[in-house]
Amino acid sequence: MNEVLIISDHLIMAGAERLIYELAYFAQQNNLKVTVLIANNYNTEYYDAVFKKMGIRVVRTSLQGLNKLRHPVNYFRALYWQTKLKHFAAKYFKSIHVIGLYNVHKVIDTVIHPNRFFWHVNNAVQHPEERYPFSPANFQNSEDTIVYINPYQADEISRQYGDAIKCKTQIFKLFIAHE
After folding, report:
1. How far is CA 162 from CA 8, 18, 25, 117, 131, in A?
2. Which secondary structure element, helix H or strand E, spans residue 101, and what is its range?
3. pTM of the predicted model as reported, rounded to 2 decimal places
4. C-alpha angle 20/95/81, rounded to 5°?
5. For 45-68, what is each residue's pLDDT tens digit?
6. Fold entry, domain 3-171
């Protein structure tokens, strides 16, 4: 169980995706095996080749709507990963990192693990009326951790959700870029 799983919904070249790269690089430097799971997106993107070159496995599968999948390979891959993450994640992964609080609702009931980290990668100004659309239920598990990449995000979430936040929180300074 010396592996971490990083979950996102895409890998295009942008801030959240750069964070995935930095986390994967950091994990590798600390002798951890890394799997990047791209949920509900089957399109090959820029970072697929980068991760392949690094020896990091990228899995593209659906974590929702199993009954909507028509391609047999996609159906069975999704069934395998949904079962693995719901019932055996703690056996296979040291920790689970979900990139973007906007992805938490997609995985909160599917990915069962005592070491889940929900990385917050945007700000309220990016949402209508500067209000986050996240369900307070996403923050109820005291074993989960919200990771902020700047103190401003922590203030925004705290102002909007207040006492509804039961999970741990921490601020994590982003890595220094390298290539």
Report:
1. 26, 29, 34, 19, 13
2. none
3. 0.89
4. 85
5. 888 888 999 999 999 998 887 778
6. Rossmann fold (3.40.50)
Burial class of 129 by CB neighbour count within 10 A (0 to 12, 13 to 18, 19+): exposed
Contact yes or no for 134/104 (Cβ under 8 A): yes
- Could you tell me the two tokens for 157? 């979430």
CA-nearest of 78, 154, 113, 79 to 6 is 113
- Indicate the DSSP class of residue 63: S
50 DSSP 8-state letter? H
Task: Write down the domain spans for the chain.
Answer: 3-171
According to DSSP, the β-strands at 95-99 and 116-120 are parallel
In the chain, the amino acid numbered 50 is: V
Say if residue 10 is exposed, middle or buried (CB neighbours under 10 Å; 0-12, 13-18, 19+): buried
**CA quadruple 111, 95, 157, 13: dihedral sign:** negative
Whose structure tokens read 């995000």?
153
Residue with tokens 């920790």: 95
